[in-house]
Amino acid sequence: MTTQTLAGSHDVLRAQIRWRWSEVAFWLATLLPFVLAPNYLVLASQVAITALFVLSFDLILGFSGIVSLGHAAYFGTGAYTAGLLSVWGWGEPLSGLAIAALAAGLFGYLTSFIVARFRHLALIMITLGIGLVIEEVANHASWLTGGFDGLQGIHTWPLFNTFRFDLYGYTAYSYALVVLFLIFLVARRLIHSPFGLALRGIRENGQRMPAIGAPTRAHIRTIYTIAAIIAGIAGAMLAQTTETVSLESLGFQRSADVLVMLILGGTGRLYGGLVGTIVYMVARDQFSGLNPQYWYFWIGLLLIAVVMLLPNGILGGLTLLARRLGMKP
Amino acid sequence: MSGTALSARGLNKSFGSLVVADDVALDLPAGVRYALIGPNGAGKTTLINLMTGMLRPDAGAIFLGDNEITALPPEQRVRLGLVRTYQVNSLFPHLTALESVTLAVCERRRVARNWWRELTAYSQEIDEAHDILAALTLAAVCHRLTRELAYGQQRLLEIALALATRPKVLLLDEPAAGVPREESKELFAAIAGLSRDITVLFIEHDMDLVFRFASRVIVMVGGRVLVEGTPSDIAADQRVRAVYLGKSHHG
Questions:
Q1: How close, in Å, is residue B25 to chain A by CA atoms?
Q2: Separation of first and last alpha carbons in chain A
Q3: Which one, of B107, B94, B146, lies nearest residue A267 by Cα?
């Protein structure tokens, strides 16, 4: 009897990790823009890059309960690192990505020592402060960053010395999509690991963790650094594919946007951030075509509606709907 | 095991003018079942907070076995075997019971930092967690979310989490708080059934439970240890009767 229930337990846990059909369908659907909307590949590449940034944010907010209003600091660090490398004469994209990841990760690691000490409102203020400081530093160091005008003269070499970054975004979207997918696989593995379980423990009850012998701050430092690395990779890809970097890449607006996109889609479920990014960015593209100045009016309305009606975001709502219809999500 | 499992020397703690621990000294011999009793505000929970590192004493020293642990943070004390539970359920609402206990086992075995292997690869840890839950009659509900468990089951899960750390000394802060009388006897039977390698100190208000399950009793009043002895010593002690038991005791 006991062994049977034991084996049953392993099955239940294994079932949570198994790939679902909806996941396979989602990733197949990311290939559709190549066929259905070849004129929108530039937008698609920016959606994929932003989705990667939101994914990194989900790891700290959604899975670990670390609220941040300064996550763009790491995105911007990656963007400026990749941009500067190119300006200084090294435009090879993959090594640029790796160096940008290193720089953002180092900055994330250093700041994680402050971040891991605080919670709640204090944490929001501290991350906001980190974001503001780095933005002003970048603004002030205009000899390096180009300041308000942005970084000029970026030229990204062809990928694998073969695929040029064309005007239609064909290479850009392929590049962004492959990097997004690979990092998604890493993130998916991470959240289903013992470390992922520990992060959920911190989110659920950070105070209780020391009482089961958990080094909470060390865990927070690790995931914060990992999230910074991923954000830096996303920033570097934006710099490489658009061949510009502006202060906007590490500004408060971007930190707020990443929060909005994740909450729209649904926190703590990996795909929530991806869905939220698609909805947000496609809607912005459509709405701003109609009436640009009202864009934030609509997004504000959407945010209120989603939070009021769908507490777990769009994806939470979809899961609920699928369950009502008797489908396995 | 023999000798002293946990001891304190000259512990002092005050918040402003409020003295919550006044020169507290304590020796828990290995393997005993201690009850810590005293009126509300006597400093019982404060003492557990001081012992486990949740509060810093103003003065004094704490020893686990022969090691001084006064300066160690809570999680390191847990790793050395000094573990507590909470009077008010302090659990992980959206983790299942099995996930919660597996987490505690993973932390103890130092695999909770591994993020490149899936949890299901750690079958030893999962099996151990399952065994702990089964021993506390929670196997049937181990896949329920913690917040969906009945209150009494949540109290048992508190103990399961503590056991998953393989404690040498277990400090239980009112383990049966809020549990109906009948169930609290079952809960204490589970505590009484713990390995004798584990030294247990529990705070409890129900004198029937104290006298049934404790081998020794410590009485605290106003941040001080008033008296320490066997249950029959305590029942006969005039001072204890005066300050605490009053007329309600019918032993």
A1: 23
A2: 31
A3: B94
Asked if pLDDT for residue A285 goes beyond 90, the answer is no
Terminal Cα distance for chain B, rounded:
32
Q: A20: how many CB neighbours lie within 10 A of its CB?
A: 11
Angle among Cα B51, B52, B54 to the nearest 5 degrees reads: 110
CB proximity B102 to A under 8 Å:
yes
Q: Which domains does chain B have, with CATH numbers?
A: 1-81+171-251 (3.40.50.300), 87-165 (no CATH)
8-state DSSP, A157:
P
- Chain A contacts to B (CB-CB under 8 A): 2, 5-6, 9-10, 12-14, 17, 189-190, 192-198, 200-201, 204-205, 207-216, 218-219, 222, 226
Indicate the residue type of A133: V
Tens-place pLDDT, residues B47-62: 999 999 999 999 999 9
Collect all residues with Cβ–Cβ distance below 8 Å to B5 and sequence separation of at least 6: B28, B29, B30, B31, B64, B65, B168, B169, B199
- Cα distance between residue A117 and residue B114, in whole Å: 22
Distance CA B66, CA B188 (A): 29
From the list A46, A102, A44, A112, the residue with the least C-alpha distance to A78 is A102
Q: Is the ipTM of this complex over 0.90?
A: no
Strand partners, A245: A151
The 8-class DSSP code of residue A218 comes to H
Q: How far is B202 from chain A (nearest CA, A)?
A: 16
Task: Tell me which chain A residues have a C-beta less than 8 angstroms from the C-beta of B104.
Answer: 212-213
Domains of chain A, earliest start first: 20-324 (1.10.3470)
Q: Could you say which residues of chain B have pLDDT below 50?
A: 1, 247-251
Using CA atoms, how far residue B178 sits from B86, B150, B155, in Å, is: 12, 12, 9
Please answer yes or no on whether B108 and A207 come within 8 Å at the CB atom.
no
Q: How far apart are the CA of A213 and the nearest CA of chain B, in angstroms?
A: 4
